[in-house]
Write a structure and sequence with these properties.
Length: 628
């Protein structure tokens, strides 16, 4: 409980990074050792393991087969939406990844080429990712809940030379064919279209006579298995797009060796897993958690990784998580607080947890949004297991702050994301760039260099990286989150300082939604805020002012705007509330007071700045949120 072991290890990571990360790197297989642990390389921030060469797929799969663990389970696929359970061993995974890599090569994909993966949680999605890593192609997985226009933006930025897709996704009872979405995305993009490999699912088939479309089963069967290509430590493993403060998504670049080192440390240090344990991250391969902890980290550590295609509730019921944890003797389980709130809403007494043997489960990890203490306590009481809230971002690739259960059991402070992980030198700064006192709120930043695993740049956008993360405070990475650090070094993350909102654990840009609303012919101006929501943490709410003479009813306008956001961003945006207002509150210089609107929506006392143009504009907003 004292934290001494953690403190010693943490200090070593900052004061002697060579020793700390050198030990971690020694657990990986290298085809060429690195010559510089951390130093100046290409791009905006220092790079790790310069000069080294290795392959991510080899480290996640082949070396375990070579060591005699080929028959051990690598993937445990559970798909209640299709009634399928499937176990894939490391030897089978090696064969699949090698064949998929061979099929990609036969279609002309080489080192450094981008491959867009548009697939739901599935064995095939993980195989496609590993196959890219195997041949040195850079994958970019796109979450299924995004609309064709968002897909098109990613296609234009990444310029993939191949797409690997499922014929459909399955959302609860809905079957969502992917081919029409891809076709529309390519029609909207500047690209002429590229070959596509479709994994055909029984629920809906893609039309393979249509253009350059290929059948997954057929191309894998015919493929010459591809070997693992040695890759430079600093070569990109993947690009993952995430929401920024404008409508244009940010292409987060992940390097190879730094990422593997960070994952190798964290799967033991944070998640306390030993090789052979079963591990489950109930996320989606389209999010960073899915990349790090469904695919790469557990496989790297020779854990069996559960892949779940379903929802926490309704597929078939709110007991599915507990049932599968018991079935696979899962040791560490990771999900989003919103999923736990969804379960709690349906099964408040936890009756569906009864009868499942969770004796193997050591801890439950939550991330993606702030964990409210009520949810934390409910979950702790339900299972009597530690519940660890940990904080991270697509940019960081792994947790910035957590309680390192594999190192030392620290006291959990509800509402806090615990302490900084190795290499993360955290500070809380005031507007003047000076550290604030313990317990005082400020911008949470990390001193450079960032530890291994953190994104070295944005795809083709070094300057955007510098502007987004490095320009606010000299020598620091700006996380975009505000909060405070207490006298024991526990970090409390309270919310974003920018236009990013977090809906049901999904990161979205309110600015992107505003762009869609503003494009409507009847809208003069608008604001989108993330209002507190009991289930989803936040939900987007739009406020619009119509143009003079706009001939449309408020209901009609709201319906059209909601439909437009769904069409242009996707169902995942979940914008369901639009309010038509006379005016938006603004400062005298014309800045829309979104924070003030959010405070009103959340039932807080609005803190409008002294520069507000006309305080009376707030009255209808307050009335809107005042119970009758
Ligand atoms: N493909 C297509 N559509 C998708 C999708 C996907 N992969 N994921 C979500 N959607 C759709 C949903 O079907 C829904 O559509 P609808 O408006 O037609 O009903 C819409 O996007 C909103 O989805 P969501 O916000 O997820 O709401 P929900 O009611 O379907 O589910 C939860 C609510 C809480 C159960 C669910 O959001 C959840 O499990 N969240 C956890 C997320 C998570 O694990 N994040 C990773 C961080 S670690
Ligand atoms: P994403 O990039 O999708 O992982 O979202 C990252 C953002 O989610 C962070 O910048 C935070 O705003 C929020 N977030 C993630 N984990 C936590 C957490 N444990 N507590 C509070 N906010 C979190």
């Amino acid at each position: 409980m004292s934290g001494q072991i953690y403190q010693q290890l943490y200090r070593e990571s900052l004061e002697q990074p060579e020793a700390f990360w050198g030990k971690v790197a020694a657990t990986l297989d290298w085809s060429k050792p690195y010559d510089t642990l951390v130093g100046k390389g290409d791009g905006p921030i220092p790079r790790w393991f310069i000069g080294g060469e290795l392959n991510a797929c080899h480290n996640c799969v082949d070396r375990h087969v070579d060591a005699g663990f080929g028959d051990d389970a690598a993937l445990l696929y559970e798909s209640p939406v299709t009634g399928t359970s499937r176990t894939v061993t490391f030897a089978q995974l090696q064969d699949l990844a090698a064949r998929c890599g061979g099929a990609m090569r036969a279609l002309g994909v080489g080192k450094g080429d981008r491959v867009l993966i548009y697939m739901p949680n599935s064995v095939e999605a993980v195989v496609a990712m590993l196959a890219c890593a195997r041949i040195g192609a850079i994958h970019s997985v796109v979450f299924g809940g995004f609309a064709p226009k968002e897909l098109a933006a990613r296609i234009d930025d990444a310029q993939p030379s191949l797409v690997i897709a499922a014929s459909c996704g399955i959302e609860g009872k809905k079957v969502l064919p992917y081919q029409p979405m891809l076709d529309e995305a390519f029609a909207l993009s500047l690209s002429d279209g590229v070959p596509t490999i479709y994994w055909q699912r029984a629920h809906s088939h893609a039309d393979l006579d249509d253009g350059d479309a290929h059948d997954w089963e057929a191309v894998l069967a015919a493929a010459t298995p591809a070997p693992c290509e040695p890759m430079a430590a600093t070569d990109p493993l993947y690009i993952l797009y995430t929401s920024g403060t404008t409508g244009a998504p940010k292409g987060i670049v992940r390097d190879t060796a730094g990422y593997l080192a960070a994952l190798a440390w964290s799967i033991k240090g944070i998640y306390n897993c030993e090789p052979g344990d079963a591990y489950w991250a109930a996320s989606d391969v389209g999010w960073v958690v899915g990349h790090s902890y469904i695919c790469y980290a557990p496989l790297l550590n020779r854990n069996a990784s559960v892949i779940f295609e379903g929802k926490p509730v309704g597929t078939p019921d709110a007991g599915i998580f507990w049932k599968l944890i018991a079935k696979h003797k899962v040791k560490s389980f990771f999900t989003a607080p919103t999923a736990i709130r969804a379960i709690k809403q349906v099964d408040p007494q936890g009756e569906l947890a009864a009868g499942h043997d969770l004796s193997n489960l050591q801890a439950i990890y939550l991330a993606g949004e702030r964990t409210d203490p009520d949810t934390l306590h409910w979950l702790e009481d339900l299972h009597g297991k530690p519940v660890i809230d940990h904080w991270w971002q697509t940019e960081t690739g792994w947790a910035i702050c957590a309680s390192p259960a594999g190192i030392e059991k620290l006291t959990i402070k509800p509402g806090s994301t615990s302490v900084a992980m190795p290499g993360w030198d955290m500070e809380c700064l005031g507007d003047n760039g000076q550290p604030v006192a313990a317990g005082e709120q400020g911008a949470i930043v990390a001193r450079l260099p960032l530890p291994p695993g953190a994104a070295p740049t944005l795809w083709n956008a070094d300057d955007r990286y510098r502007a987004s993360y490095l320009s606010a405070f000299d020598g620091y990475y700006l996380s975009g989150d505000a909060g405070y650090i207490d006298e024991d070094g526990h970090v409390f993350v309270m919310g974003r300082t920018d236009d990013v909102i977090n809906v049901a654990g999904h990161r979205l840009s309110s600015a992107a939604m505003e762009e869609v609303l503003a494009a409507h012919a009847a809208v003069a101006e608008c604001a989108v805020i993330g209002a507190a929501d009991q289930l989803k943490g936040q939900i987007p709410v739009g406020f619009v002012v119509t143009k003079a003479g706009a001939d449309i009813s408020q209901e009609q306008l709201a319906d059209e705007l909601i439909a437009n956001v769904r069409r242009d961003i996707g169902p995942v945006a979940a914008l369901k509330n639009i309010h038509v207002m006379e005016k938006l509150p603004k400062t005298r210089s014309g800045k829309i007071l979104r924070k003030t609107i959010r405070q009103i929506a959340d039932g807080e006392e609005p803190q409008a700045p002294a520069t507000i143009e006309d305080p009376s504009v707030l009255a209808p907003y307050i009335a809107l949120y005042t119970p009758l």
